[in-house]
Amino acid sequence: MSVTASNAIVPTVFVVDDEEPVGDSIAMLLRTVGLRTKVYQDARAFLQEYQPEMPGCLLLDVRMPKMSGLELQQELINRNVTLPVIFITGHGDVPMAVEAMRAGALDFIQKPFNDDELIRRVQKALEEDARERALLQRTEEIERRWADLTPREREIAQRIAEGHANKRIAADLDISARTVELHRARILQKMGVRAVAQLVRLMVVLKDSPVR
Amino acid sequence: MTNAPTPTVAESRFAALLDAAVDAIILIDSRGRITRFNLAAERMFGYQQAEVLGKNVSVLMPEPYRSQHDGYIGRYASTGERRIIGIGREVVGQRKDGTTFPIDLSVGEFRTTGELLPAGEHGFVGIIRDLTERKAQTREAEALRQRLTHVGRIGTLGEMVSGIAHEVNQPLTAISNYANACRRMVGAGTITGPELSQTLEKISQQAERAGQVIRGLRALVRRRDEVREPLDCNRLIREVTTLVEFELRQAGFRLVLELADPLPDAVGDAVQIQQVVLNLIRNGLDAMQERATGDSIEVATAAADGFVEIRVRDHGPGLSAEASERLFEPFFTTKAQGIGLGLSICKSIMSAHRGQLTAETAPGGGAQFRMRLPMLGNP
After folding, report:
1. Could you read off the pLDDT of A53-96 as tens digits, one per residue?
2. Which phi and psi angles does B355 have, rounded to 5°?
3. Which residues contact A188 (CB under 8 A, 6 or more apart)?
4. Cross-strand bridge partners of residue B301
5. ipTM field
6. Which residues of A47-119 form beta strands (DSSP E)?
7. Nearest CA distance, B214 vs chain A (angstrom)
8. Strands B296-304 and B254-258
C-alpha cells in the first residue's frame, strides 16, 4: 500500500490521547515545525494501524479509559516495538511517570506544556529512533559492540533476550539478583540501547548475521 | 385517715401538689384573675405568688395577646367554642422583667365540688412548659445539620480534587497548544485567515469548558445559608456531572442522562441537591470499581404525583440485605475507606427539603437511588 510505503520513509509523531482537543492541538503545534503527525483517540486504534517499520515516536497520554498509556507501552514491549515513547502526564501522575520510565519510556512531559520544550523533546525522540533504526542496518557495528561484552555478559544478555526475569537468571546462574541488575545495565550501555526491547532487536540481527 | 379532710388540710395538700410539679401551674377564675401560682410558675415568670394573685393572667403575656385575652375568655363563655382548652398549643409568655419566651400551654376547665376546694368555684387551670431550651436545641441541631452538610460537601470535593484538576488542565493544555501554534504560524506568515479564526474559536470553546468546571466547583464550595428556590433539576444535574465525568471516563464507565423534558420546577437548595446527586454518582462509581455488572451510571428525571424525581442507577454489585437495611444510618459503610456519613447526610438533606431518599435494587442488578423533591407550588 502506498500509504504504508510513505510512512516507512517519513517519520511520524503518533499522538495517542483520548481527548480530541488535546490531541488536535498537539498535532497543530507540531505541524508548525513541519512534523508529520497522526492522532488517535484510543490505544487500540493505534495498535491496529501501527507497523514496526514505521519510523517516528509516540506521544502517549498516561491516563486513558479502556487501555491506559502504561498498558499500551507494555503491549508494545511484548510486540518488540522499539518506537521511542514520550509520556504526557497530568497533575499528580508522577508515580505513573516513574513506572513508565522504568519500563523504558524515553521521556515524559507534564501538561500543560511549553511549546519549545515539547518540540525539543519530540525532535530528540525522532533522532533517537532514527539512530536506532540506522544501527539495525549496520551489522558489523552491532557485532563489534557484542564482541565488547564479557562472556558472562553475553550469557546474561541471551537469557534476558529469551525473556527470563532477573530473579530466574540469578537463580539459574547462582548469583544475586542485584548482580544481574548491574550486568543488565552494563549490557544495555555497551550495546548502546535504552531498553530490553531494543537489545532484543539487535540480537535478532546478530542471530541472522552469517558471522556468528 | 377516717375523717374526710378538713378544708385546711385539703388546701395544704393541694398547695404541696402544685408546688411539687415541675411545670408551671396557674389557676384563674372565670374572669381571668389569678387564684393560684405555683413555685415553678414563680421561677419561670419571676413573680412571687403574692404579686400576681388577683391580677389578670394577661400580665403573663406580651402584646397582642395581652389585650386580647379577656376577649378569648368572653368568647368561650358565650359560644362554648374551644380554641385552646383541652388542646394546648405553643404560645409566648412574658416574664416580670419584660422578656418573652416560648411556652407550651395546655388549659383545662374546672368547677369545684367542695371536696378539694370550696364548692362553686369555676375557673381554668393552665399548665405551662418552658420551651426555650428545646427551641435552642432544635436550632442547634439545625445549625449542626447545615454545618455537617457543608463539611460533607467539602469532603466529597476533597476526594475529587485530582480529577477536577485534570478536568481543568485538559482545556488549559489545548488552549496553550493552539495559542502557541497560532503565534508560530503568524510569525512565519503561514496561517490563513480562516484557519486562524477557526483556531481562535477552538480556544474560546476550551476556555468556556474550563470556566464551567470552575463555576460548578465554586458553587459547591461556597458556604451559604440554606435557601428555598425554584429548581430546574435537569440543569443542576448537567452542571454537577461535569465534575464527575472525568473520573467515570477514567474508570472506563459512561454517564447516561435521561432527563425528562419538559420537567416542572422543584423547590429546594440547588447546591445541596447537587451535593446529593454528586454523592450518589460517586457511590455508584465506587460500587462499580469494586465489581461492575455494566459500564454506565444512569441519571434520570421524571415528574410524578407532586414530586420531581431524580433517579441514580449504577451497575455495581447491588445492595446486600444488611446494606439496604442500614444504608442511611450514620457511620454505616461498606467501603474500606469511607466513614459512612455520605448517605446519612444525603438523607437529612432530603428530609429537610420535605422530600425523600430511597434505595432499591434495580431491575437487572445494581443499585438505584430515588430522590424526590416537592414540585414548585405543591405545598
Report:
1. 899 999 999 888 778 888 999 999 888 888 999 999 886 677 88
2. -120, -165
3. A194, A195, A196, A199
4. B310
5. 0.78
6. 56-61, 85-89, 107-110
7. 17
8. parallel
